[in-house]
Amino acid sequence: MKRHEPKGNLERTAMADLWRHTLSQIPSVFGRLVYLTSLRDQNTGRYEHYGLSQAFGEDEADSVLRQSHEQAFAEWLCFTLEQQKADLDLYLAGLNGNRRTIINTWIRLAPYRNLVPAIAREVERQLYLADLETILELLRSEYGVASPGQDA
C-alpha cells in the first residue's frame, strides 16, 4: 500500500521536481521569469504545467509555479543594477534574433511589463520597471537603437 505524504512534503517534492527538471536548466533569473510567466493563463491567473499537473495535481502545480515565479521576481529585485544587466545580457545571449531588433521591440512594446507576479506590491512593480527601463536605456545606447519617436 502506498503511503501518502503530508502536504508539506508533497510541495517540496513538486518544487524539487520543477527545479531539477526545468528551472535549473535556465541560466538566468530573467529567463526563469519569462518561462514562469509563460505558464500563467492571462485570463485566469492560474499557472499550468502538464507534467507537474500529472504528477502532483493541478492545484499543486499552480501553487508551486506561482511560488517559483514570486521567488524569481524577488531574486531579481535583490540584484544590483549591474547584476540585473549581466543577468539580462545572459538571457539575451540565449535568444535567436538580432539584439538590436529585440531591444527596439522591447522599448516599443514593453513585453517585460507582463513578467510581474500578480501578488507583487506596487512598490516592487515600480522598482522592477524602473530598473528594467534603466537597463534598456543602457542597452539602447550600447547597441545604437534609435530612441522612441525617431526612425530606427
- Specify the helix fraction band: 55-70%
The gross shape turns out to be elongated
Number of helices: 7
Category by helix and strand content: mainly alpha
Largest sheet: none
Terminal residue distance:
66 Å
Order of helices and strands: HHHHHHH
Overall mean confidence score, pLDDT:
89
Specify Rg, calculated over alpha carbons.
Answer: 18 Å
Q: Low-confidence parts lasting 5 or more residues at pLDDT below 50?
A: 1-11
Commentary on this structure:
The model is unreliable at 1-11 (pLDDT under 50). The chain has 152 residues and is an all-alpha fold. The N and C termini lie far apart (66 Å). The protein has one domain. It has seven helices and no strands. The chain is elongated. The protein is 65% helix and 0% strand. Helix 1 (7-21) packs across helix 4, helix 3 packs across helix 4 and helix 6 (99-109) packs antiparallel against helix 7 (122-143).
